[in-house]
Amino acid sequence: MANGKKSNNYTGAIIVSLLLHGLLIAALLWGTDFSMSKPQSAGNTIKAVVVDPALVNQQAQRIRQQREAAKQAEQDRLRRLERQAEALEKQRQEEERRLRQLKADKLKAEKAARDAELERQRVAQERKKAAEEKRKADEAARVAREQAAKAEADRKAKQEAARQAEVERQKQLAEQRKAEEAKRKAQEEAKRAEAERQAKIAAKKKAEEEARKAEAARKEAERKAAEARELQRQQEAALNDMFAGLEAETEQRGGAKGQFIADETARYGAIFKGMIEQNLLVEQSFIGKECQIRMRLSSNGLLLDAFEDGGDSSLCRAAKAAVVKVSQFPMPEDPAVVEKLRDIRLIVSPQ
User: Fold this and answer.
1) Could you give the angle at the alpha carbon of 103 between the alpha carbons of 98 and 104, nearest 5°?
2) Cα(174)–Cα(187) distance, rounded to whole angstroms?
3) Which of 42, 65, 297, 304 is buried most deeply by CB count within 10 Å?
4) Which residue stretches of the chain are H helix?
5) For residue range 114-159, what is the model confidence (pLDDT) as tens digits?
6) Are strands 303-311 and 291-297 parallel, antiparallel or unpaired?
7) DSSP 3-state assignment of 310?
8) How far is CA 311 from the centre of its chain?
9) Averaged pLDDT for residues 87-98
10) Per DSSP, what are the bridge partners of residue 306?
11) What pLDDT band is residue 83 in, cutting at 50, 70 and 90?
């Protein structure tokens, strides 16, 4: 339909253009004299109409402009018609879509209504079935209540009989437990007496064993002390003999020997102190404290005795334990230095 309208419009434009060209040609012919005249005599004046080319061009230009304007107007009109047609087509399509949607919504609503009706019928059927089942259940419950009431009466009767039997049983159990408790106490008393007897026997055996071990240790200590005293006596006798022969030489050497003895005594005292501190179990509370230990040694460095000579008591106990752990100290070859070291005092001060 739109194409037919476009063809008619173009046809009209062509007709208008042909009419305009026809008018132009008529105007040109109108201004020109095409009449045939007979030859005049030479003396007569020749009359002629002159056509102005500028006027002709102006007319042609105006006709072309009018034609272009008409063509442009026609194209504008056609474009407006096309836009209107497109808008109408879009509106038509939108209306069709809306109608399709309304139809789909209607079908959906109808289906929902049918489903709702089916659901209503199903619910009604289920309610009817549930009502029937409830009636049956109520009837069954009534029968069950009657049976339960009868069973409860029987149960109470049996319960009362069982209670009476339980009272009698509990009475018998109480008498039995009382007899068993008396028997258990008698057995426990016998076990306790036996345990005390066994404990006394064990304690006596332990005391005897400890006394035996203590006696053996005492005898061993006396033996070692006797050996140490004998060794000391022998060493002292040997030293006395030695010192008797060296007494004159010692007096001659004078102060140089005395300084040597003092230096060596100090050097070995430092060695002894280092050995003691290496075996000392140091506690944090010992830091900054001192203990003076006096040791008596044999000539070969064997510990004979050690005791506190002042200072912190806890540190002194630990120092004595360290001295006993060392038990023997290195001795020099010089008898005079050995004699100084046999009775020595040391200051232990852990850092």
Assistant:
1) 95
2) 20
3) 297
4) 2-30, 53-253, 255-278, 313-326, 335-341
5) 998 999 999 888 999 988 999 997 898 798 799 978 889 889 988 9
6) antiparallel
7) strand
8) 57
9) 91
10) 295
11) very high
- C-alpha triplet 186, 192, 195: angle, nearest 5°: 145
Q: Tell me, rounded to whole angstroms, the distance of Cα 227 from its chain centroid.
A: 72
- Asked if residues 276 and 322 have their Cβ atoms less than 8 Å apart, the reply is yes
Instruction: Let me know: does 348 contact 277? Beta carbons within 8 Å.
Output: yes
Cα 39 to Cα 33, 44, 48, 345: the distances in Å are 16, 10, 14, 185
Q: At what angle do helices 255-278 and 53-253 cross, to 10 degrees?
A: 130
Beta strands 291-297 and 343-348, pairing class: antiparallel
Q: CA angle at residue 118 from 113 to 121, to 5 degrees?
A: 125
Surface-to-core class of residue 54, CB atoms within 10 Å of its CB (0-12 exposed, 13-18 middle, 19+ buried): exposed
Place of tokens 């001060």: 349
**Among 108-112, 162-166, 218-222, 254-258, where is mean pLDDT lowest?**
218-222
Question: How far does CA 138 lie from the centroid of its chain?
Answer: 59
**Mean residue pLDDT across the chain:** 81
pLDDT value of position 148: 74
Q: Is the dihedral of CA 76, 82, 88, 90 positive or negative?
A: negative
pTM of the model: 0.31
| Amino acid residing at 140 | A
- Expressed in angstroms, the distance from the first to the final Cα of the chain is 121
Q: What is the DSSP string of 171-187?
A: HHHHHHHHHHHHHHHHH
Distance between CA atoms of residues 286 and 312, nearest Å: 8
Take residue 281 and report the two structure tokens written for it: 């179990």
Q: Is 91 buried (19+), middle (13-18) or exposed (0-12) by CB count in 10 A?
A: exposed
